[in-house]
Design brief:
5-stranded mixed beta sheet; two-stranded antiparallel sheet; binds iron/sulfur cluster; binds FE2/S2 (inorganic) cluster
């Protein structure tokens, strides 16, 4: 396959950027998208040019490190798929693809397709933990939890912190991410003690980082590679309401 690329190249933060055209002349349909970019980069390095900067780590769809826009879609056209798990057979010979970084005020561009997503880390630091010492591992049935509740908590816990939800949202809101982190602890018994303070602190940090508010567009859920449900946002809003109005933020 021959794939034409238009790639956002930006040498550094606050530097001007532009789309630059490249051609990948012999792409195997079995290559992952990032492997295709590796080959393009080998060609650039051989010519003495600066390789395209992009993030990746596990390349198995579990670490959340990779991610950029392909033709305006976060992680590309396949549902529930990270860009590292996207394969070139998803495209046609001769396609022209435009690659751009996540665009959000809270995600400043570092270089090319790499953005600084440490704002998401700071939301976790604000409350995404339990400070209860639960000791050693208990038997699985030591604390009985209804199966539907466990399923909801584990579904929320699948969030890999990739930031695609932010990039897809017209408000650049991180509500899906934040609500997933709030839900997976808030639904379980171990997370009850800090349930109110957690939601207040994490929402406050979300807003302070410059993410926008959720207006129920649903774009986040559509692009999420882990299919995190926007019902988590509704749960976050209910918890926030209860914490601030009923319990006075405690
Ligand atoms: S909610 Fe989905 S899109 Fe957003 S950070 Fe988590 S895994 Fe990525
Ligand atoms: S590189 Fe780990 S999820 Fe893509």
């Amino acid at each position: 396959m021959r794939i034409n690329l238009r790639v956002w190249r930006q040498p550094g933060p606050n530097k001007p950027g532009k789309l630059v055209e490249y051609t990948a002349p012999s792409v195997s349909p079995d290559m992952s998208f990032l492997e295709m970019l590796d080959v393009v980069n080998e060609g650039l390095i051989a010519k003495g040019e600066d390789p395209i900067a992009f993030d990746s780590d596990c390349r198995e769809g579990i670490c959340g490190t990779c991610g950029f826009m392909i033709d305006g879609l976060a992680h590309g056209p396949m549902r529930a798929t990270t860009v590292c798990q996207l394969h070139m057979r998803s495209f046609k010979d001769g396609d022209t693809l435009t690659l751009e970084p996540w665009r959000a005020r809270a995600f400043p561009i570092v270089k090319d397709l790499v953005v600084d997503r440490s704002a998401l880390d700071r939301i976790i630091q604000a409350g995404g933990y339990t400070s209860v010492n639960v000791g050693g591992a208990q038997d699985g049935n030591a604390i009985l939890i209804p199966k539907p509740t466990v399923e909801q908590a584990m579904d929320a816990a699948q969030c890999i912190q990739c930031g695609a939800c932010v990039a897809a949202c017209k408000n650049a809101s991180a509500a899906l991410f934040t609500s997933a982190k709030i839900s997976h602890l808030g639904l379980l018994p171990q997370g009850q003690i800090e349930r109110s303070t957690r939601v207040v602190r994490m929402v406050a940090r979300h807003d302070a980082e410059g993410f926008g508010s959720c207006s129920n567009e649903g774009e986040c859920e559509a692009v999420c590679p882990k299919e995190i449900s926007i019902t988590n946002i509704a749960r976050m809003n209910r918890d926030y309401f209860a914490a601030t109005l009923i319990r006075g933020g405690r």
